[in-house]
């Protein structure tokens, strides 16, 4: 890895460090972050979407929103979000609505009262004769394995922290089922206009077990990335101060005037040891540094229980025989 190159976090702080509100920073990340998937890779057959670069006008809109977030707060409502995917989806719905593209959001399709066929994440204006169906996802996957650059990695090796899914399985579901929803008769009866095209828009972070990462077919070269390591390996982490990131702060790199939950390395270890006594869920940690009047993220990674590799290997064996 070229240590002289600007990290994603450095670039984000440079572009968006003036934004103070967490919701606006998360929205800026959704609009500006590189895609996880390479929309130009033939693997996706033109069915992966990408957002246009953030224009000066959109940047100014975000600045105004940061000064007066009342419209965004009203759109998100008073509910307390526990699902990161739903939170990100609501932020994107607000953006599409504010910029005159949103036709429908979360439109459920039922074949009958008790038979839900599926749901359109977004229907966007695609001209007078059609709409675009966007299936939207924000995902966080860890590369399961530590082979060298010569290994041919597959998307199934990118697994969720809880080992419940993989990027390969997610994209198969999106392509084989969700993007075909517009063809269902029950959907056609509700659509305001025919679906002119259906594509997946995928944002997120990928995490690797060492300081380098392999080229993987279908993955965008400039995607957001971090590390993962086991609890017993945290002494190898660079940095001296850490934050355990709440789930709704997983999107944008952390930056704030203060953070009362800062941890030293010893405190981090103690906190994680206590956590892993009752939970097998990996924990997302931000390595931070102090600047005048600011605390900002330098890098991030998942700390996994010490048996995570063994459980991941067992998962591979099950998948191989099923």
Automatic annotation (TrEMBL):
It comes from Massilia consociata. Pfam families: DUF1853. InterPro entries: DUF1853 (IPR015003). It comes from the Bacteria. This is DUF1853 family protein.
């Amino acid at each position: 890895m070229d240590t002289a190159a600007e990290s994603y976090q450095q670039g984000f702080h440079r572009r968006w460090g003036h934004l103070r509100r967490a919701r606006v920073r998360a929205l800026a990340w959704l609009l500006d972050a590189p895609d996880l998937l390479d929309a130009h890779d033939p693997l996706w057959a033109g069915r992966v979407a990408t957002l246009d670069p953030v224009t000066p006008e959109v940047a100014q809109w975000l600045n105004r929103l940061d000064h007066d977030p009342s419209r965004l707060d009203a759109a998100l409502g008073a509910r307390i979000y526990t699902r990161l995917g739903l939170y990100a989806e609501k932020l994107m719905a607000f953006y599409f609505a504010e910029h005159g593209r949103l036709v429908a959001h979360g439109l459920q399709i039922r074949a009958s009262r008790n038979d839900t066929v599926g749901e359109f994440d977004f229907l966007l204006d695609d001209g007078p004769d059609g709409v675009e169906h966007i299936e939207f996802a924000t995902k966080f996957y860890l590369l399961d394995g530590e082979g060298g650059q010569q290994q041919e990695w597959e998307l199934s090796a990118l697994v969720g922290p809880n080992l419940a899914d993989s990027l390969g399985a997610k994209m198969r579901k999106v392509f084989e089922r969700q993007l075909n929803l517009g063809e269902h008769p029950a959907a056609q009866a509700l659509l305001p206009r025919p679906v002119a095209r259906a594509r997946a828009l995928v944002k997120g972070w990928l995490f690797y077990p060492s300081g380098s990462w392999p080229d993987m077919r279908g993955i965008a070269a400039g995607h957001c990335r971090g590390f993962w390591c086991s609890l017993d390996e945290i002494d190898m982490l660079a940095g001296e101060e850490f934050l355990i990131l709440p789930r709704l702060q997983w999107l944008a790199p952390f930056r704030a005037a203060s953070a009362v939950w800062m941890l030293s390395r010893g405190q981090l270890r103690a906190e994680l040891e206590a956590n892993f006594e009752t939970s097998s869920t990996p924990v997302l940690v931000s390595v931070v540094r102090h600047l005048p009047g600011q605390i900002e993220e330098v890098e991030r990674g998942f700390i996994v229980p010490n048996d995570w590799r063994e459980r991941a290997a067992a998962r591979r064996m099950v998948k191989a025989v099923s």
